[in-house]
Amino acid sequence: MTGLNSRVDKLVNYFKSHNKIREQTPHSAKVHSVGWSCDGKYLASGSFDKCVSIFSLSGDRLKQEALFCGHGGSVDQLCWHASNPDLLSTASGDKTVRIWDTRTQKCTANIGTRGENINISWSPNGNTIAVGNKEDLVSFIDVRTMKICAEEQYGFEVNEISWYKDSETFYLTNGQGCVHILSYPDLKTLHVIKAHPNTCICIEFDPTGRYFATGSADALVSLWDADELCCLRTFSRLEWPVRTISFSYDGQLLAAASEDLVIDIGEVETGEKIADIPVEAATFTVAWHPKQYLLAYACDDKDTYDRKRDAGSLKVWGFSNDS
């Protein structure tokens, strides 16, 4: 236990000297989704203003590189390719999924879907993009043909979708507090886990594939063994429905956010609190950098001078206080 305690102490101390925040305001409306490219070179944000902003990270500096416009509706979620750092997919309320290339700064594919899209997940092998819409229809896009190859309509509220590292197992969370695990491509139900007594909102796999975590309307985050499908522990420091979660690159830290005015960062093995980030409004998206302890996030912040207007900002926390 001493080793665990010293690791927790080390992490706590690290963030005492690495809690500086960099802020950017690339959008004219609320930021719905943030995410890092697989190499950590780029940070993308998708907004209600229908645009996607791309930033490069160099040292402790964020620089806006591009603004992708073209969607006719809100960009509700974005997802980078797992191994190609230049490709980004976006799900929009305009009933399309788009794929963007940061090298050419252009949209390389525009795939029509049957509803207003709210969530998206790219399979680890890069071959399939799953997208969910407001009517609880999940569509699977074959990236090689850019066509929808399968659709599944659910009779319950589908909240978030994700892939296991083998790209042959697909997970979704629902309004009944369950995690459904399906085989892909045949979409047969393998398991249904009753994870929470309330709506299960978000799901995230750790980078090693050993664990996944779920966030719920009961304000709990639960950590699961991905092989045994058993709950290992819960994180209970938040008081509002957990909207978004993210594992650090090494799987040691788990960030969780909600309408609480704080983002909670816990140590995965013990559940102990490592740090928290004070915020001024509800937080709906967080994402750890794939190679270092930097957390990108966006809150429902309002403009300093006009409280009716969204700030359209995103922040990155974890830079050295000396930088």
What distance separates the N and C termini?
A: 34 Å
**Treating each run of at least 4 consecutive H or I residues as one helix, how many helices?**
1
Overall structural domain count: 1
CATH homolog superfamily: YVTN repeat-like/Quinoprotein amine dehydrogenase
What is the highest CATH level, the class? Mainly Beta
The pLDDT mean sits at 95
Strand fraction equals over 45%
Q: How many beta-strand runs?
A: 28
Spans where pLDDT lies below 50 across 5 or more residues: none
CATH topology: Methylamine Dehydrogenase, Chain H
> How are the strands ordered across the major sheet?
1-28-27-26
The CATH architecture is 7 Propeller
Structural class: mainly beta
Helix share bin? under 10%
Please trace the helix and strand order, writing H or E for each element: HEEEEEEEEEEEEEEEEEEEEEEEEEEEE
Largest sheet: 4 strands, antiparallel
Radius of gyration over alpha carbons? 19 Å
Could you explain the architecture of this structure?
With 323 residues, this protein is mainly β. The chain has one domain (2-315): YVTN repeat-like/Quinoprotein amine dehydrogenase (Methylamine Dehydrogenase, Chain H), CATH 2.130.10. The chain has one helix at 2-16, and strands at residues 20-24, 31-36, 42-47, 52-58, 61-68, 75-80, 87-92, 96-101, 106-112, 117-122, 128-133, 137-142, 147-153, 158-163, 169-174, 178-183, 189-194, 200-205, 211-216, 221-225, 231-235, 244-247, 253-257, 262-267, 273-278, 283-288, 295-299, 314-319. The strands form seven sheets. It has a four-stranded antiparallel β-sheet with strand order 1-28-27-26, with no helix packed on it. A hairpin with a 5-residue loop joins strand 2 (31-36) and strand 3 (42-47). It is globular and about 50 Å long. The two termini are 34 Å apart.
